[in-house]
Amino acid sequence: MANSQQPHQKMSKYESHELYAEFEYVDRSHATRRRRLAKKHHKKKQNGPRKQSDRHAKMMADIRKMDDSHASWVPSYAAALDPLHHERHWVISAVAPFYHDALITDVTRLVKGGKEANVYACTADPATGFELVAAKLYRERMLRNLKNDAIYKAGRTLRDADGKQIRSRRERTAVLKKSGYGQRLDFMMWVGTEFRTQTELYEAGGDVPKPLAQQGSAILMEFIGDEYGAAPALNEINLEPDEAQPLFERVMENVKLMLDHHYIHGDLSPYNILYWEGDIILIDFPQMVQARQNPHAFELLQRDITRVCEYFARFGVESDPVQLTLDLWKPYMGSEYAGLHVGK
Ligand SMILES: Nc1ncnc2c1ncn2[C@@H]1O[C@H](COP(=O)(O)OP(=O)(O)OP(=O)(O)O)[C@@H](O)[C@H]1O
Ligand SMILES: [Mg+2]
C-alpha cells in the first residue's frame, strides 16, 4: 500500500507541497512590498492593481481546486484553519490517503510541531484495532537541509520509497550530486527508512509505536497517550527512584535489540523516548544508522548510550557508558573487533 498514487488526487503531493512552500515563505514585510510596488511603477500601467487581483483570484481558484481533490473529506483540525493557511492543505492532502484506506476517520489536533515534522492525533478507524493513531508529516523542504546527514547516511544502501535498492546510475548520481530530483529521492529515503526500521523493530518485539502505513512523506502509527494528550518524553518527567533502574535496563535491551538487527538509533536521547503507563517507548527513526556499514557506527552507538546513561544518572542509576558500549559492540563485531581501534 505504501506510496501508491491515489486516484482521487488531481495534483501530485510534491506539486502541492511546493505550492504551500510558496505560501509559507512569502515575505510580507513593508520594505519588500515597497520594493515590489516600486518595480511595478517602472512597468507599463496595465501591470498595476488589476494584475494583482487577478493573481489573487487565480491563487484562490488553485486552492479551491486542490481542496476539491479531497472535497469528500476535510478533517476537523483542518476545517478550523484559515483556508489560506498552508497547513490546512498540507494536512488534508497528506492524511487523505489514510482516510481513503479506512485507517483514520478524523484528525483532531496537532501533538507537536517540529522543524522536520508535525505529529497529529487522529481518530482511528475501528478496523485498525486502535482508538487513536498518530500521523507524522514530514516537511520536505526542511529535510533537504538536514545538517550532518552524511554522518548517518554513510554506508547506507540507497533505497527508493518502497525500500527497493536504487541501482540505476542516473538515480544514484542524482542523489550523490544533490540535484533537485536527487534531493527528492533522498527525502523519500529518510521517510522510508523510518517506516521500514520501525516496522522491523516492532515485529522483533521492540518498544516502539506500531507503524500502520506510509504514504509519501507521512507515516501513520499507534498513538502513545490517550484522549487527553500524548505521552510525555522522558526529558519532561521525573522518574520515581524505584522505576529508574528497570526502565534504564529496558532502554538498553532495546539498544541491544536494534544492534542485533544491525541498527543504531543515532539520535537516542530522553527527547526521543516516551513514557507511558510505567513503560518506555522509543520513537523517531529516520536517521537510523546501519551498524555494519557506517564508519561512524561505534561513535554514534556510544553517543546514544551516553545520553541515556546521563539521563538515568539523575535518578540514581549508576552506569559506565563506554563499558556498556564495548559490552555490546565487541560481541556484535566478533572477530572483526580485534582489527578495530575503538574505545579503550
Ligand atoms: N506515536 C506517537 N504517539 C504520541 N506522540 C508522538 C508519537 N510520535 C511522536 N509523538 C510526539 O511528537 C513529538 C515529535 O516526534 P518525533 O520525535 O518523532 O519527531 P521529530 O520531527 O524528530 O521532532 P523533534 O525534532 O521534536 O524530535 C514527540 O516528541 C512526541 O511528543
Ligand atoms: Mg524527535
Task: Write up this protein.
- With about 350 residues, the protein is an alpha+beta fold.
- The chain folds into two domains: about 15-220, Phosphorylase Kinase, domain 1, CATH 3.30.200.20; about 230-340, Transferase(Phosphotransferase), domain 1 (Orthogonal Bundle), CATH 1.10.510.10.
- The protein has helices at about 15-25, 30-40, 50-70, 75-80, 85-100, 140-145, 150-155, 170-175, 180-205, 240-260, 295-315, 320-335; strands at about 105-115, 115-125, 130-140, 210-215, 220, 225, 230, 265, 275, 280, 290.
- The protein has a five-stranded antiparallel sheet with strand order 1-2-3-5-4, with helices on both faces. The chain has a two-stranded antiparallel sheet with strand order 6-7. The protein has a two-stranded antiparallel sheet with strand order 8-11.
- The model is unreliable at about 1-30 and about 40-45 (pLDDT under 50).
- Bound molecules: adenosine-5'-triphosphate and magnesium ion.
- Adenosine-5'-triphosphate (ATP) binds near residues 112, 134, 221, 225 and 231.
Q: What count of helical segments does DSSP give?
A: 12
- Supply the CATH class of the largest domain: Alpha Beta
Enumerate the spans where pLDDT stays under 50 for 5 or more consecutive residues: 1-28, 42-47
Distance between the termini: 47 Å
How is the largest sheet built, in terms of strand order?
Answer: 1-2-3-5-4
What is the helix/strand order? HHHHHEEEHHHHEEEEHEEEEHH
Percent of residues in helices: 40-55%
Summarize the biggest pleated sheet.
Answer: 5 strands, antiparallel
